[in-house]
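FIELD: query
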Amino acid sequence: MAEGSGEVSLAEVETSFRKFAVHGDTKATGKEMNGKNFVKLCKDSKVIDGKNVTSTDVDIVFSKVKAKTARVITFEQFTQAMSELAPKRFKGKSQEEAVQLLYGLIAGQGPANIGVTKVAKAAAVDRLTDSSKYTGSHKERFDGSGKGKGRAGREDIPDTSGYVSAYKGQDTFDDKVKENE
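FIELD: result
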């Protein structure tokens, strides 16, 4: 391949490999990648396009290049996997050209997972947690500002004053006694 033809250095690809290799695994060193992160790398860097390359293809290639008993692949095995996937992803290109194009997709990529949960939460959860829309007994658990009342809102705290619940003249006994003296 001619120099300066947009060739991606393996170092850049390896940097991406390491980023994905440690993704979601606190014990990972970045030298080996498990199948889950391999699929994630392929999805996030658009190696999986849903037409020519599917996640099943990626799984099969992963199983093919890893050592029989291993559950992870090294960067070297990763490059083998890429050379298997490249002709599938870029049909009609030469092997080398296809691999370069594939590396072009991967270089500079990192796991795309920042803020994923925030997007999912938005409208549905806000609607469900808006206490102003609560009715019935649930409404009793929040004050006007929407702040929970804690135990007072959850439990029926018994009135132990000795008066019947609907009695209007509560705490007027002493006044009546004084009147009659």
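FIELD: remark
Residues 1-5 have pLDDT under 50 and may be disordered.
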